[in-house]
Amino acid sequence: MIAAAAGCLALAWWQWSRYESTTGSFQNLGYAMQWPLFAGFCVYAYFKFVRYEEAPPELHPPDAVTEIPAELLPQRPTTPPPGAGVDDDDADPALREYNAYLAELARADDKDTTQQTRGTGT
Question: Where is this region: Disordered (predicted)?
Answer without folding.
Answer: 58-91
